[in-house]
Design a protein that fits this description.
It is built from eight helices and 16 strands. It is α/β, with parallel strands linked by helices and about 260 residues long. The model has no long low-confidence stretch (mean pLDDT about 95). The structure holds zinc ion (ZN) (2 copies).
Length: about 260
């Protein structure tokens, strides 16, 4: 399984002195060139040719940093591709997309356009805890504890599996399910704020380095490769220092452009 990181931060931010206009980007992972896991970064991180290979978009929740480039994907690909792109998420997420984004006010309804018989997007409601097949990939959405309905994911291809926390505060079911997998190769756990902002992390339902360590411990697999992601770019340096101070030898921080092969 090939996982390409288009964006892995909790917002977008450029850095002084860098030539690229944006260095830190919102969430968007491409798996096996065909499935987009969250669409905070999508169209701006992929060439038109690469966008044409996308068959599935699987969304963790409705927050803008996870969906904001979905419209550009539709605009770029409308009239260009023969296939429909499956947009999958909890029913409430799909309803929210249609009510607040593709509502014929903010944007046209790409679940109906260009023609109602062959719209560019086709919705698929994910049933929590139940695996869904997307080509060769099996994805299970497990509800987590965020400020809006939100899921983490277990992604499997028959040989390897990995777990992505999604935006969450302390959670249980996702780790129980992941810990039961014999071929679990990696855990990606969000870490949005530094430890001194634990109160804000708790009210906004996110994690800090110390809280990440507590969540990782629930997997009872200390040798498992672990990646922190969804760092708020403004606090990135402090978060990274605090992550480094944790006694977690397998811990690394995801970065844009990274490709992970499992
Ligand atoms: Zn987020
Ligand atoms: Zn969120």
């Amino acid at each position: 399984m090939k996982i390409r990181i288009l964006g892995c931060h909790g917002s977008d931010l450029s850095q002084p002195g860098k030539t690229s206009s944006v260095v830190f980007r919102s969430m968007g992972f491409v798996i096996n060139d065909a499935l987009l896991l969250d669409a905070g970064t999508a169209a701006s991180g992929l060439t038109l040719e690469e966008q044409q290979r996308i068959r599935y978009v699987v969304l963790s929740h409705l927050h803008l940093d996870h969906i904001k480039e979905l419209p550009a994907l539709a605009v770029n690909l409308g009239g260009l591709i023969d296939h429909q792109i499956v947009v999958a998420g909890l029913q409430s997420i799909l309803n929210g997309l249609k009510a607040h984004i593709f509502n014929n006010i903010v944007l046209p309804d790409f679940f109906v356009l260009p023609t109602p018989r062959r719209p560019i997007f086709r919705e698929l409601a994910l049933e929590p805890h139940r695996p869904h097949m997307f080509g060769e990939l099996k994805i299970t959405a497990i509800p987590v504890d965020h400020s809006v309905p939100s899921v983490g994911f277990i992604v499997e291809d028959g040989q390897s599996s990995w777990v992505l926390s999604g935006d969450t505060y302390a959670t249980e079911a996702l780790w129980v399910r992941a810990a039961a997998l014999s071929n679990l190769k990696m855990a990606c756990i969000e870490t949005s704020f530094p430890d001194e902002m634990t109160e804000l992390a708790q009210t906004s339902k996110h994690l800090t380095p110390r809280l990440l360590a507590r969540e990782f411990d629930k997997l009872k697999n200390p040798h498992l490769p672990l990646y922190a992601y969804h760092l708020k770019p403004a606090f990135r340096e402090r978060i990274i220092d605090q992550l480094a101070a944790l006694d977690l030898p397998t811990l690394d921080v995801l970065h844009e452009g990274q490709v992970i092969t499992l």
